[in-house]
């Protein structure tokens, strides 16, 4: 496997197992498949653009500093200063904690269906399993090595794809094609944060640029192709789920989560969906715990890779408490992570960094390259679109919903 194919595969495999895919059918159900498919494509384009902006700033930063391995924090410090770094760091922490809350809530819900144990007990069970896994240094070392990461992702992703294909074959016979043609674009805005969250990959872009030695042509190909495949996966997954469900009338008592309805009404597909869901959570959960552990180790001035109990207490206890306090926190946590985390860290900040970078003296150098056309107009659209979604969600959370 060449270096390019290795990095390309990592991008694809990371996107296949994100937990956002579990929430997509629920948040797009009211909009219908047709409207949600258009929304997914628009969100994909938006996230591709912001990823390319990060790659652009990253490569130009490497060229200016004369060294590789430039992190997102270094890029933010160079372009936006201390204020930008603070926004980036707190957004990073917010996304991780919100997703860990969602993972605990959903995994315990699935285990409740499997084992018949009360929901609160399963939340403690999920906490204990993850705490034990992250405590074992051997497991952590395997995840942190590139070969171990690829092996872990490859085995998990292969099983998930097999399970998904099985569910597709079983459910496709019950597809109602008329359901797939329904659309309600008025319900689209509520789904945007979680759809955007499902396409997050920008955290691997600096590594991508380093391993591809700043070759922007290869970086562009990897980003566009590596995210187009998950886009197709999301569309097929959503079509299978929404195409076998009837969109409920407003005010009906039918479950708002199509996956729960499918699990309860289809004895064949239900276990497959549960298995797919657990694997999607498991392959993301541990990675987020370890990523946040390294961040807190740096914040607390501890050696990276240390297994000090304090780190994992700070990481695991708050999500457990939040999941226990609110049984319906899964969708709320994903929505908050997408709105106030992803759209800031991977929406507004990349465009702001590129704006400053392009306006600097170095941008006049012949070595300066751009990946996204349209100049400041495009950057304004990116910032404006993200800010509009954030403002709309903020007003909705404060009780000022649009009529």
From TrEMBL:
Superkingdom assignment: Eukaryota
GO terms under biological process: amino acid transmembrane transport
Topological relation to the membrane, as annotated: Multi-pass membrane protein
Keywords tagged on the record: Cell inner membrane, Cell membrane, Membrane, Transmembrane, Transmembrane helix, Transport
InterPro entries (alphabetical): Amino_acid_transport_2 (IPR018227)
Compartments (UniProt record): Cell inner membrane
Chief location bin: membrane
Chain segments annotated as transmembrane: 33-55, 87-105, 221-242, 276-297, 309-325, 337-356, 377-395
Any one of the GO CC terms: plasma membrane
Keyword GTP-binding: no
UniProt cross-references to PANTHER family, sorted A to Z: OS07G0662800 PROTEIN (PTHR32195), TRYPTOPHAN OR TYROSINE TRANSPORTER PROTEIN (PTHR32195:SF26)
Name under which the protein is recorded: Tyrosine-specific transport protein
Gene source species: Dorcoceras hygrometricum
